Amino acid sequence: MATASAHHTARTQADEAADEAARTAAYEVVFDAAVAADERIEPRDWMPDAYRSTLVRQIAQHAHSEIIGMQPEANWITRAPSLRRKAILMAKVQDEAGHGLYLYSAAETLGVSRDELLDKLHSGRQKYSSIFNYPTLTWADVGAIGWLVDGAAITNQVPLCRCSYGPYARAMIRVCKEESFHQRQGYELLLALSQGTPEQHAMAQDAVDRWWWPSLMMFGPPDDESSHSAQSMAWKIKRHSNDELRQRFVDICVPQAESLGLTLPDPDLVWNEERGHHDFGAIDWTEFWEVLKGNGPCNDQRITQRRRAHEEGAWVREAAAAYADKHTNRAVGSTSTTGETGATRA
Ligand SMILES: [Fe+2]
Ligand SMILES: [Fe+2]
């Protein structure tokens, strides 16, 4: 009797495992077909675990970059040369905070909490773009960041508006509109400096000299060293390779630098008629990996400042939570009063 029952249980478990595998396989067919047909995957849809974890990693890293990226520019808000420039810069830095918030919300639709992601940022278990580990030494850096860093961000992010994951793709549409404003304000700021006094022109040139190469590194390692690229392209999270996007960015920047009257710091930068693209010099990948490992000029400063801002903001989060609780309780209270009244009447 006991043997028969055990045998029965074992068969049932095996059947369940087989059913589960068949279900997963069927879901996978639906998922693959949706991706192939350029449909959006939505939060409640079935998705492979690796697709989910890739998105969490990418969206979290993107969100972290938006909020850490506020620091180098916020450094110049109090020293902006005019009220107009100060207002523009404040709006821009505030936009970046907003981008962080859309992106944390998009990540939350994948089943992770914002607290968990911030913990990972603060403890160094998740990364942010290494570009923000460089210092902003002069006012012209605000212009160079807008033109080059936000410009590189747009080149990267426009294809993400067609990313297969719905909430991420939709967040990117608004983010890209704002990034386009950021890029133009940087360009306009640099143009004013470039056409200003010889000292202002030199300041603009110096900023471009320092930000050009790190901007090219923003597209990530070369295609043959990029570990996640192939799978992300197959899932249509990514639409173009790192090297393709980098090339597109270089081709966009060359004529813009000419109109600015500034020189891009690369003696090997030359139009290649045959390829229909600009050739450019070798990127110092040793520097990229060092900054990524935490050895950039401002890594410690950025993460220390972020942790401090988080701690100092604890009272705001507590107050907001208490306020939300009070309103939830009030709503629940009023519902139950109505219920009691109804019960009395009955
Ligand atoms: Fe942004
Ligand atoms: Fe931006």
Automatic annotation (TrEMBL):
One of its GO terms (biological process) is phenylacetate catabolic process. Keywords: Oxidoreductase. GO terms for molecular function: phenylacetyl-CoA 1,2-epoxidase activity. Residues 326-346 are annotated as: Disordered. Residues 333-346 have a biased composition (Low complexity). Its EC number is 1.14.13.149. Pfam families: PaaA_PaaC (PF05138). GO terms for cellular component: cytosol. InterPro entries: Aromatic_CoA_ox/epox, Ferritin-like, Ferritin-like_SF, PaaA, PaaA_PaaC. NCBIfam families: PA_CoA_Oxy1. This is 1,2-phenylacetyl-CoA epoxidase subunit A.
